[in-house]
Amino acid sequence: MNVTLDIGGRPGRDCGGFCSFCYFKGASYVGPTGCRSCKADSRGCTNCSQKMVEILPGFKPLDQLLFELDQETSREKPDTMTIEGNGDVSCFPDLLKLVGMISAGKVPVFLDYTSGKGFSSGKEADALVDAGVRRVSFSVFSTNPELRRRYVNDRHPEAVLSNLRTFCRRCDLYAMVVLIPGINDGLQLEKTCRDLEDMGAKGLMLMLFANTSEQGLIFGNAPLMPGVVPHTVEELRDIATEIQENYKMRVIGTPLWDPQTGAPFALAHHRQEIRKLPAVERGATLVTSSVAYPLLSSIFEELGGDVNVVPVRKQIGNLITQEDFESLNLREVKDRVIIPGMTLAHDREIRKALRRDGNRRLVFRGPDDLSVESEKSIYMEARQVLDFELKAFTALIEEINELGV
Predict the structure, then answer these.
(1) Residue 266 carries which DSSP code?
(2) Full-model pTM
(3) What are the structural domain ranges in the chain?
(4) Is 45 helix (H, G, I), strand (E, B) or coil?
(5) What are the phi and psi torsion angles at 198 (to 5°)?
(6) H-helix or E-strand containing 71?
(7) Residues sharing a CB contact under 8 Å with residue 174, sequence separation 6 or more, in sequence order
């Protein structure tokens, strides 16, 4: 069993300042979007009014974290523990003490995300590994100190890169690079890859830079970097594939393409696995993101039956909002509609948008996740990804057969 400990924190404040490419940089306050946790008669709950926009208070006190951990582990002792937060984990003032107390030299600790901006001496990594850290997800951006100083807002890039080197040598480090055209791609990316391979990194996650609302900026803060045109999903997939072929470390692109597992939607590449799914007995329309659309469509084409897939403009399904439904072409939408489970809109308002042509459609939320995000699949084997998808698609098909036309 893995236990996740959320230390809290605020983007831009508890992370050493915004990176140039930060999803929350310049975010305007937005009212609650609505979500699956909202009450049927009102939009807004703790999830979509606070957690999603990450306006919660700063880092939690150490005593509170230990109390939460005690509540979580009162019945079963964890095999591993993950520390995550809305700020940068390395900026948490009691990080070393926390790791030592929850690990006690026995339980492996994973640091879910850090850019290392809270490190300044270059020696922090040794102490953290000695205390129990065994895996780190590290936002590198570039191994060029000047690029980190300028775009990551890193005040001590040399010290941070020294810690990066130590983590690579002493535990499992998975690096992340938000890829920005003309800044840290091309020759700069080649240098970063060589450095990471030489350091001993286990994997590299290449992440698509979001600079438009369609790419996921839902807080009125697009563009983050005016004039910058991000790579396309296809370009990122090709870059990830090429790097995977040239280096020993595991390489993925996100939001699309893990060359080793085929995630997300690995089933689209395995017809024999699709045959293990239940038969589709009724009809429905599936609303999905623009990235998922071609893969999800190919899976249901292979399954047969009366299910059509309709994309919205948003690239990420979990970031679909009300405006996406209001712009959907209803001529393609059947009387039964299934939307992504984590859609950020209120059910009542979704129904209103999908009935604006006078057709009284019924709308249902599907599973939260149909596939494994590629930044998670980097820790998994191909069989694990396929088994996850088989279970998720089975649940979706059973919902279609129960609720469809």
Answers:
(1) G
(2) 0.93
(3) 2-254, 266-403
(4) coil
(5) -65, -35
(6) helix 62-72
(7) 135, 136, 137, 138, 201, 202, 203, 204, 205, 250, 378, 379
Query: In one letter, which amino acid is 15?
Result: C
- pLDDT exceeds 70 at position 54: no
pLDDT score, position 53: 62
CATH of span 2-254: 3.20.20.70
CB-based contact 323:350 (threshold 8 Å):
no
- Distance, CA of 157 to CA of 146 (rounded, Å): 8
- Mean pLDDT of the 116-143 span: 97
**What is d(CA 184, CA 187) in angstroms, rounded to the nearest whole number?**
8
What is the per-residue pLDDT across 271-293, written as a single tens digit (0 to 9) for each?
999 999 999 999 999 999 999 99
3-state secondary structure of 102: helix
Please indicate whether residue 92 or residue 52 has the higher confidence score (pLDDT).
92
Q: Which residue has the tokens 């088994």?
A: 387
- Residue 322's nearest CA partner among 352, 286, 293 is 352
What pLDDT shows up at residue 147? 98
With residues binned 3-state (H G I as helix, E B as strand, rest as coil), the percentages for the chain, rounded to 5, are 35, 15, 45
Assigned token pair, 178: 């938000």
